[in-house]
Amino acid sequence: MLSRPYISKTTKELEQIFKENTKDKDILICLKKELLHRQRSKAVALLDKVNKQLESLNQLSLPIEKPKAPTPSTQPSQPPTPQKRSFWKRLLKLFRW
Question: Which of 3, 33, 37, 38 is least buried, going by the fewest C-beta atoms within 10 A?
C-alpha cells in the first residue's frame, strides 16, 4: 500500500471520505496521516475533526471496569498490577512518536 494513499485527493474529497467513514478507524488514521502534511485552513480544520472522531472512537472502545475493593481476609498478598497506559501513551505508541 502506498505510504500516502490520499496524496492526490483534494481537501473536499478528503472531507467526503471522512463523512462516509466516521466509524472506520483505519481510514480515519490514513486521513490523519495525510492531513498532517497539509497546511491550508480547511485541511487543518478537517484534521481537528478527524482527531476528535478518533478520540471518541477510542473512548468508546476502552473497557469500562468497575473498581474492585480488595478485602484483606480474602485477597492473597500479590504485587500490585501495573497501571493501564493512558490514552495519549497508547496513541503515541500507535503512531510511533
Answer: 3
Name which of 12, 3, 19, 22 is nearest 43 in CA terms: 12
Q: State the CB neighbour count (10 A cutoff) for residue 50.
A: 23
* Location of C-alpha cell 504485587: 79
Burial (CB < 10 A; 0-12, 13-18, 19+), residue 91, is middle
Would you say 28 and 54 are in contact if contact means Cβ atoms under 8 Å apart? yes
Positive or negative, the CA dihedral 40, 34, 22, 97 is negative
- pTM score, two decimals? 0.61
